[in-house]
Amino acid sequence: MAKGYDAVPSEERQRLRRYLEEVVAARRAPVHTTVAFNAVYFGYDLNGDGYGGSPLRLDDFPVISLGECAPALPVGAMVCVATGSDPLYAEIVHREGAHPEIGPLGDVPAWVSGAPAGAEGPGRPAGGFALRRRELLVPDLDAFGPALRLSQTQLRRLRTRRRRLNEDGHVIVDVTYSSPEAARQDDVSAYADHLLTTAREQLLSPFVPVSLAELVGGTDEDLLRAGLLGLLDTVRAVLLSSASLRTWGHYAVTRASLAECWGDTGPLGGDDLRSLAAAIEHAATPARRRHGLTTSVTAYTAVGPRLRQVPGAGGLLAGVGYAAAVCRANLTLADVVRGDSEQGLFENGCRVTLDDAFESGGIWRSLYPGGSELAGDPLTPTGRGWASTLPTALEQQDGTEPEADVDPVDQPLADATDLGDSELLRDDAEEVVWRSPLRLAHLMDGWFPLHPHVLSELRRSHGPSLRARLELDHAGRTGNAQRAGQDVTAELGGASGRLTGIVWPDDFFPGVFLELCWPRGGTVIRAATMRLKETLQVDERVIGHCYDPRVLTREDAPGSHRHGDSALGLGPRELVMRAVRRCGLLTLDGHALLDRSVLPNAAYGRQPARLQAAVLEAAVAELLAERRLESALGSRDAWGQPHYPARDGQPGIPLIGYRPLRRRVIRPWGDAEPEGSGLVPLQFVAGHLRRLRPGCSPSPVQRAAFRDYCRRLGKADGWELPYGYTFVTEHIRGR
Fold this sequence. Notes:
Blueprint: H1 10-26, E1 31-32, H2 33-43, E2 63-64, E3 69-71, E4 78-81, E5 88-97, E6 131-140, H3 152-161, E7 171-177, H4 180-184, H5 187-196, H6 200-203, H7 212-216, H8 221-241, E8 245-248, E9 251-254, H9 255-263, H10 270-281, E10 297-302, H11 303-308, H12 321-340, E11 351-356, E12 363-368, H13 384-387, H14 391-397, E13 423-427, E14 431-437, H15 440-445, E15 447-449, H16 452-462, E16 465-473, E17 485-491, E18 498-500, E19 513-519, E20 524-528, E21 531-538, E22 541-545, H17 549-555, E23 560-561, E24 564-565, H18 572-583, E25 585-586, E26 592-595, H19 599-604, H20 610-625, E27 629-636, E28 642-643, E29 652-658, E30 662-664, E31 683-685, E32 688-691, H21 700-713, E33 725-728, E34 731-733
Parallel strand pairs: 2-4, 3-7, 16-20
Antiparallel strand pairs: 1-9, 4-5, 5-6, 6-7, 8-9, 10-12, 11-12, 13-14, 14-19, 15-18, 16-17, 17-18, 19-20, 21-22, 21-30, 23-24, 25-26, 26-29, 27-28, 27-29, 31-34, 32-33
Helix pairs in contact: 1-8, 2-8, 5-8, 10-12, 18-20
């Protein structure tokens, strides 16, 4: 399981899925990915004892108390709540912001929505070095079974006195973060750090069913971190793959409980949740349309406080019931936005989007009129409330012209001339042999450079050009025989010679290595690919042959393909990945690291509009949460050049790094592949959305296929195709 979801045998995945489905059904709170990991790793008893029989050492748990200042505790952390008498052991099952500026009716000042930790007011980020944020923690006081549970009388006394717990049985603490990066960490990454530091003893306990150190084969820090993240990813993938569960972010609930809630006519039932959705939909819409209304209206609504205003909901929001209500409310809102609007734009002209997924149960933004705003995924938090109070936005309110959107640009590769150097393998009386990776320009324009030794001899014997024969050796490939041998032109007149007029096979990609051989005196050049010992999948590409990871990172970035290379039409996530991969510092193994502060300029060629910059930053946060990108610390020298690792005596700078996701491909027919087989002609293509041409619409078959795909995936944000897209079902390319 430490190697990732795909490396887990099918029978084990099914057994793990069944167990986690039972855990989610048994627990009253939504089950976070980290809580599900705890259940698997430490052993959660489904017969009522919870962690009571686990090997956890209760004395190692950090102690928390209502109203105190404490280090950040992620969801999944095991804690001891100070009571003044008997200790109270619990598992944190939900965590959210508890900003004091949010009103009791859920009304939110714009600057609070999406504000960074420690923000002091509109457009005023934190001052000083310590970043503080008030947070609400929901502990599951029943997680350790009846033997360690306080009586109802004791709990009622604690809640009434509000000294250790508040009246709902929650803990509100002022959390201190060491850095802005730590404050922006997602729950899974934060929990991994917690287990490797504060809870290291319980993670490496020899009494757990299978210790992480045993799984990864040692206690090296990098091995432990990689193995732990692999385990968490596996648990997350299993939760998403369950047909009986639905997820909101990292929280999972059963579909049965959700359906039961929607059918309930009591407090916080279906009627109340639909009323909440309708209230948010109309929050910014004028009650009576006035003649000449030109200014837009924006309203921000926090889900948690709004739920507390539902008549009769007080007792249902106590304890872990609050976490369940928040999750169900957000799932209801997501379904309404996906089902009844066009990318968040409703028929009444109001646009509804999720603006902050962390603060007070989630903050939803309502804008009227919303038709003129740039459309995007309405369920991707962008923090537009906070962004609207930044100095540039305040200057616009003073009467300056609004910022104009700019198009992304195609920045040149940071080290284009250093990539793809030829390596001379042999030069004797019979032949010249060299190796060189294929570049994107070679694929697009049908050419390939000659080695200088070959160029000088051919030019001396044949003049400025000649007709040559290129033979591509990829034994085992079937198809057009003409591609195995083709007539090409050798252009020898310039400073560097090359073969032109080449028709490359369809499955060649930037970075694949070619080993070329020129027998002296002839006009035939042979090129062959070299098999890897085992097939790999790097990001979305299946690779069976030796390749240059640096070229693959640079020239297989989003927007790059054999028919063109352009950033136009890419979404924010793809723009971020393209900028980091093309412009960042490049390592030998294909990692790329970019100074985070220059990302907008790298994507757009100059500082883009404020909204575009905010959308980019939201995309970065999302990619970091998914670990498609990683945070790192570098330095900048006196000439402004970034360096990694950070150098002594230079100011530090935050970096974002692209990490190629490599995994071994396990084929349905086994690991063994025939000797001498050529380029891998089969490639698995996962189901995905494809933009339609204007005027086109998806077929009913593809609509049904997308709904079935969402059902299997456990998708939380609606099962209907977005406007302007169709669905491409999963298939094997090359059959």
